[in-house]
Design goal:
Blueprint lengths: L4 H4 L8 H18 L3 H10 L3 H12 L17 H5 L5 H10 L13 H10 L3 H9 L10 H18 L11 H12 L3 H4 L5 E6 L6 H13 L4 E8 L2 H13 L7 E3 L15 E4 L11 H9 L17 H10 L12 E7 L1 H4 L6 H11 L3 E6 L12 E7 L9 E6 L5 E7 L2 E4 L2 H13 L6 E5 L4 E8 L4 E3 L3 H9 L9 H6 L9 H14 L6 H11 E3 L25 E6 L12 H13 L7 E2 L5 E4 L3 H4 L9 H23 L1
Parallel strand pairs: 1-2, 1-4, 2-3, 4-5, 6-8
Antiparallel strand pairs: 5-7, 6-7, 8-11, 9-10, 12-15, 12-16, 12-17, 13-14
Helix pairs in contact: 2-9, 2-13, 3-4, 6-7, 9-12, 10-12, 10-18
Length: about 650
């Protein structure tokens, strides 16, 4: 397919190749799929004028044991080969050909194909390009749906790469997709084999439909009689067009693929699904849609993003919330929805207690939606080598999984590719994929598989305060600080008055303020409350031997005043010291921790209970960390001596 670029080179820039190759690939695939049925199509088009009548009769006439029948057609007699027979009118013939497709096959508008054809014609490349594609066999017998999906995604990858347009965001490696699908289906395998199974599968970042294709084919491998309904939403017009055409060819309802930004507008707001699969783009910011997302967040329980908002630099956790919101409700048989989403490492731990990301993790864990998280090897993706994870979600966990999360470390199961593709240097082979799925399905415990309670990821962040202790002395250095102060330096006569106050050291703030206030009054200098506070903050210096400062006004008047420079925070895990892992046990756990871990080292400290926050993080790597002791000093010394000896020997050769 891509070799037609040799024909385009010259009149077209490299970044423009995809705008020609992609729509011609779609057209040729459609043409090859229609070829055995062109006579039937022509008869039905002639016999029936209404689209619904044509669609109904065409599906019936073209239905086979392996196919639900065709739901699209063309009213044109043209093919690429026939259009080429009239070279003088080739552009008009091809425009007529594409215009004849049924209304549900409107994908060529997304490619702006009419203008593509006219540009090719004006640059004298249309005939060569059309001839090139007419000679390629893209019939289902030669190229399966799965292989066609791979082909589309590879073309998208090449196009994006040549345009320097973040290629990897359009292309999920097939080994990752297959592992994700296998994990999502793992516990449903037996149920999926039953007769009459009907399942809906949805991808909110559908791209060219690769995940849907793999999920659909895998389900039919389990059960040939199963019926699937595939749904997807895509923001990019080209990938949307390819996905829609691909699903039409599979006999799916074309209206189930919709264009738009999933985070702005959910095109399936009234639907939930049996299975949800997604690989949202890594590290994509959402500043441009912040107002819409924030509005939905502020709607509370009615919005997908009600639990919290991540930082605008990465939308990954918004997609996580969206995916969780699309799981079908639990039915009378206890069956709900399952999902698999590919994420980078930041959703595991970014944001401290009380932050949006922490609140989102809390929502997922407290509602028991996270079934497992699988760490993939690095260098699995085409545009990034960073750590990536598969999150498996369910709103109807089996009894043995309720209240727990399984962590699987698959980072050591990658195999090196013979040739890198972009940043992808590693794949997970079929045998290793089966190992991961078996570990998940069996809930096996090992060095690479841990099962933890949901509350093992919860903690309280406490704020530990210590009292403010300051000494006060009007030394030249401190008076200089007052002179340079933005507000105090403007008070007429203040610096001079402080200079005549004397250099006695005060260890009590109230005593200092009383005496300095009297002195300034004698000098006819009156300070506002704010200026008075700024004065003692500027003159005062931390001193452990000084008296404790007390709050002078407000609701906390008379209490010890905290020293911000000594303020500290501690994270206390739920269940610390054997206490219950419940929210109700917060105070007793915090009190016990404070008495055991803080007070022995800071007897005058206290916990500011108004600042205590609940947080959630999933420190994945910590649970699989293995301590590697350093090499013995003797070995290191021996290596150093050996290397020094080698260097000396080389120097002697140079000198000689």
């Amino acid at each position: 397919m891509w070799s037609v670029a040799d024909t385009l080179r010259g009149p077209y820039q490299e970044a423009e190749y995809g705008s020609v190759i992609l729509p011609f690939t779609v057209l040729r695939r459609l043409e090859c799929v229609m070829e055995p049925h062109r006579e039937t199509m022509a008869e039905i088009v002639k016999q029936y004028s209404g689209e619904q009548q044509r669609r109904t009769h065409l599906k019936i006439k073209t239905r086979t044991a392996d196919s639900t029948g065709m739901s699209f057609w063309t009213t044109s007699d043209y093919t690429l080969e026939r259009a080429l027979q009239d070279p003088e009118n080739l552009a008009e013939n091809l425009i007529d050909y594409v215009a004849g497709f049924s209304s549900n096959l409107d994908v060529f508008k997304s490619f702006d194909f009419e203008n593509v054809l006219r540009a090719l014609d004006s640059r004298e490349r249309l005939s060569q390009v059309a001839s090139h594609f007419a000679g390629i066999d893209l019939s289902p017998e030669s190229v399966s749906n799965a292989d066609m999906g791979d082909l589309f995604e590879n073309l998208i990858y090449r196009f994006a790469e040549s345009a320097n347009d973040g290629a990897g965001q359009f292309y999920t490696p097939r080994d990752v997709v297959r592992l994700l699908v296998d994990l999502v289906y793992a516990e449903d395998t037996e149920a999926l084999r039953d007769r009459g199974q009907v399942r809906s599968i949805y991808d909110p970042t559908v791209g060219t439909g690769g995940m849907l294709t793999v999920a659909d084919e895998h389900l039919h491998d389990l059960n040939q009689s199963a019926t699937t309904a595939l749904f997807g939403q895509e923001v990019n017009p080209r990938t949307y067009a390819i996905c829609k055409a691909d699903l039409l060819i599979k006999g799916q309802d074309a209206t189930n693929v919709r264009q738009g930004d999933t985070l702005v507008t959910d095109r399936f707001a009234d639907r939930k699904f049996d299975y949800v699969l997604s690989n949202p783009p890594f590290g994509t910011d959402w500043k441009a849609i912040a107002s819409q997302v924030t509005n939905e967040h502020e709607r509370g329980g009615q919005g997908r993003f009600a639990p919290g908002l991540p930082g605008t630099g990465d939308a990954a956790m918004l997609f996580l919330l969206h995916v969780a919101s699309k799981l079908r409700d639990i039915d009378e048989y206890g069956r709900g929805g399952k999902a698999g989403i590919v994420l980078n490492g930041s959703p595991l731990f970014n944001g401290g207690a009380g932050s949006g990301p922490s609140a989102i993790r809390g929502h997922m864990l407290e509602n028991d939606l996270v079934e497992a998280i699988v760490a993939l090897p690095n260098d699995m993706f085409y545009n990034t080598g960073i750590a990536t994870y598969l999150w498996i979600l369910s709103n109807a966990k089996p009894a043995e999984r309720k209240g727990t999360v399984q962590l699987i470390d698959a980072t050591g199961l990658g195999s090196k590719l013979r040739k890198s593709i972009g940043s992808k240097r590693v794949e997970i082979a079929e045998k290793k994929r089966a190992e991961v799925v078996q570990t998940f399905a069996s809930r096996e415990l090992s060095a690479t598989s841990k099962i933890l309670e949901n509350r093992d990821f919860a903690y309280w962040t406490i704020t530990v305060e210590r009292p403010l202790r300051l000494n006060f002395e009007c030394t030249p250095e401190r008076i200089s600080d007052v002179a340079e102060h933005r507000a105090l330096g403007k008070v007429t006569g203040l610096v001079e008055a402080l200079g005549s106050f004397g250099e006695r050291m005060y260890l009590n703030r109230e005593e200092f303020l009383r005496d300095v206030g009297k002195h300034l009054g004698d000098e006819d200098i009156r300070l506002t409350t704010a200026q008075r506070k700024a004065l003692w903050q500027t003159i005062g210096q931390q001193d452990e031997a000084a008296d404790v400062c007390y709050v002078q006004s407000g609701k906390n008047e008379g209490e010890m005043e905290p020293d911000p420079t000594l303020r500290d925070t501690d994270n206390i895990p739920f269940g610390w010291g054997g206490h219950p892992k419940t929210h109700n046990a917060a105070q007793e756990t915090i009190d016990a921790y404070f008495e055991a871990e803080v007070k022995p080292h800071a007897p005058d400290a206290w916990v500011d209970k108004t600042k205590t926050k609940t947080g959630y993080e999933i420190p994945f790597t910590r649970h699989f960390y293995e301590y590697m002791p350093p090499r013995p000093l003797e070995e290191i010394d021996a290596d150093l001596n050996r290397i020094v000896g080698e260097i000396l020997a080389i120097l002697k050769e140079v000198e000689a």
